[in-house]
Amino acid sequence: xxxxxxxxxxxxxxxxxxxxxxxxxxxxxxxxxxxxxxxxxxxxxxxxxxxxxxxxxxxxxxxxxxxxxxxxxxxxxxxxxxxxxxxxxxxxxxxxxxxxxxxxxxxxxxxxxxxxxxxxxxxxxxxxxxxxxxxxxxxxxxxxxxxxxxxxxxxxxxxxxxxxxxxxxxxxxxxxxxxxxxxxxxxxxxxxxxxxxxxxxxxxxxxxxxxxxxxxxxxxxxxxxxxxxxxxxxxxxxxxxxxxxxxxxxxxxxxxxxxxxxxxxxxxxxxxxxxxxxxxxxxxxxxxxxxxxxxxxxxxxxxxxxxxxxxxxxxxxxxxxxxxxxxxxxxxxxxxxxxxxxxxxxxxxxxxxxxxxxxxxxxxxxxxxxxxxxxxxxxxxxxxxxxxxxxxxxxxxxxxxxxxxxxxxxxxxxxxxxxxxxxxxxxxxxxxxxxxxxxxxxxxxxxxxxxxxxxxxxxxxxxxxxxxxxxxxxxxxxxxxxxxxxxxxxxxxxxxxxxxxxxxxxxxxxxxxxxxxxxxxxxxxxxxxxxxxxxxxxxxxxxxxxxxxxxxxxxxxxxxxxxxxxxxxxxxxxxxxxxxxxxxxxxxxxxxxxxxxxxxxxxxxxxxxxxxxxxxxxxxxxxxxxxxxxxxxxxxxxxxxxxxxxxxxxxxxxxxxxxxxxxxxxxxxxxxxxxxxxxxxxxxxxxxxxxxxxxxxxxxxxxxxxxxxxxxxxxxxxxxxxxxxxxxxxxxxxxxxxxxxxxxxxxxxxxxxxxxxxxxxxxxxxxxxxxxxxxxxxxxxxxxxxxxxxxxxxxxxxxxxxxxxxxxxxxxxxxxxxxxxxxxxxxxxxxxxxxxxxxxxxxxxxxxxxxxxxxxxxxxxxxxxxxxxxxxxxxxxxxxxxxxxxxxxxx
Length: 891
Fold this sequence. Notes:
Layout: E1 7-11, H1 29-38, E2 44-48, E3 51-54, H2 71-80, E4 87-94, H3 98-103, E5 111-115, H4 123-126, E6 131-136, E7 142-149, H5 151-163, E8 168-171, E9 177-182, E10 188-193, E11 196-199, E12 201-203, E13 208-212, E14 221-230, E15 235-241, E16 256-257, E17 286-290, H6 292-296, H7 317-328, E18 332-335, E19 339-341, H8 365-373, E20 385-391, H9 403-417, E21 421-426, E22 430-431, E23 466-467, H10 473-490, E24 494-497, H11 505-516, H12 520-523, E25 531-534, E26 562-564, H13 566-573, H14 604-622, E27 630-632, E28 638-640, E29 645-646, E30 649-650, E31 660-663, H15 672-679, H16 686-701, E32 707-710, H17 729-733, H18 752-755, H19 759-766, H20 773-792, H21 801-807, E33 808-809, E34 821-826, E35 829-834, E36 840-843, E37 852-854, H22 856-859, E38 870-872, E39 877-880, E40 884-890
Parallel strand pairs: 2-7, 17-18, 17-32, 18-21, 21-24, 24-25, 25-26, 26-31, 31-32
Antiparallel strand pairs: 1-4, 1-6, 2-3, 3-5, 4-5, 6-7, 8-9, 9-13, 10-11, 10-14, 12-13, 14-15, 14-16, 19-20, 22-23, 27-28, 29-30, 33-34, 34-35, 35-40, 36-39, 37-40, 38-39
Helix pairs in contact: 7-20, 10-11, 13-14, 15-16, 16-20
């Protein structure tokens, strides 16, 4: 008899089946013990009702059904399926189909096993209990065993039908609510309504459990009691869980609320007829990134510090500053996460118990004191989502109930009336926790589905926390549904996706499509005007399209969704965010032209070569990071944006302006001022530090495509050299709108957890570097001038690569170009960025005879230094003072 390789998958239908199945009397103990231990992992992947995939197996095994369950388990199983305690689905060797390989490329090296057609009907019930895959030798010995990953087969059986059913709390025309939750693997689900248990009904086709209530349920507290097998617990449990589709919560997210967001009581005056700011295409967006607490928590002129309502205090210093930026050309305010956050207490938060202002500028005491209360204070960046579609309660004046909805809408309305769109920073790529943790919601309803699992069945955490799996249909749907809710119900003007590269491109395209379908007549908003951008980094288990086509920088080109471009950012600042020596210099921090004493910068020859290559990266950035733009690089070579190297990758990856978002700093890593503090020579005067700051920001402001700056960067904002201030409290993160309060520098050594390895560099700077009101106000005014200039010149808003190719050039590029100086010709403009400490002449023979003058915005602007710029018509020479960006216009 020919031996065949056969696999058996045990599918325990009994909800309470937890014991390791024993070996039979004639089975050696050791192999059985090894197999049982292997069940702690989940290496087998159930792809669909027809196929299971498993890493390559031994050649000589046969099938054996598992031993029956214990008596108590038989009784439970009999209630589910009379006459049956367990079922086994027989499998035979097969082959992954092209469609399966496309959907699950990371399983290409796995063996495929076909489910016997007679057993496929058992799949739905089998998925509601413990699952164990086993391989059996000819003598019955269990040679391999593992738990099973089930997301693929759940999508195959349920997702299409589930997509057609509304989830969460919905209301009919009479005001009666229906509550629905997708829980296809649950044994039972009931509604816990104000402590009363209400049964829910399961729809077999979709896996959705529903219950319809009375009008009196409105605004009452609820949760779901979900009885489900939890692999982490190793048993069936009953979890009391809030609604993943909740739109309102009680304080600290303890309970969901049956809330109708269309309730007129939740609409502030003028909400229904709110006039949105003038729409701008993504390529023209100028974005100010800000954290709700940073904006106002330390502003004594604000009546509602640290809250959504702070943005409605129009006479506060912060609100005045935002209006000045809007008048100059800023189009959007980007709010760091404002959904429900797991790590911020919504009431009774602690504050540091120290006299922080009395401590020395270079003391470690400030960070010690802040760290002592960090876990219980009111501050966190918020990249730890708990409920994706509820406003965070700590930013409301009262977190109890749906009032936070009204206050969030007040904030949006106020910013809109000031001419600013509102962008939400959204974090769908991970959850705060997984498994049976208190702050795990999704994984306690459908264990193992919403989180991305690694080969051994553990939850991936490459994003810092428990990764989600938007490649799975219902997690992808949650992303789309949540975004659409924010757009319709809160009139949000844009979304920034955290670690967007961990999303499939298809998921992001689906978001764009869903928003584009929103119309003012039907939905109250024009979805086509909503902007989308995100972090397109590629790393972790999804890197290089390992599991799906990622929403990364290269793949998103041409989709209408922008990605942050790190190319010019690194070139402007110097080095990278994780350099051991923070003194590595770049274009705007003095590399070669104003060297510091860091050995990491290399020899003079190496500095010059690296600076010129940095200038090539900035040129590509000024084009909008266009892959196909043709240019001459600093060696004299004709190439394209994609042909310029960025750490082994193409510098240019965009298809058209608007695909790449330019920036010199954001909330991550050191602020621009702090980075320059590390990199500029220690003795650099305060005025020169301010000028280098504005020049660095200009490389983003004057580029094709959208640009972003961190709030306060125009005011030389510092976080006292903290490179990761996500939990550093108000002390290190505060924005100071009154220049007499300083810029935040010298508030103590930054928190040890992320910065102690740099303290040797930081300590001497904190007592020697300083700026005052003159530099802060001059910097802010000069940045506004550049914003105004950009907003009034159509040449900064070109639509295609062909238009950029025709209008934009770098006429002095090549081996003879000046280190530290960039000259760009753009239609009838000439832009000179002089990052050197000396006045520079840039001669353009093709400009000879043309009348150029300093742009009127700068000529009548705030900066007296740029007004010393000059142009010699006879020789075509542009003269620009040190550390200055000057824009000349023909005419």
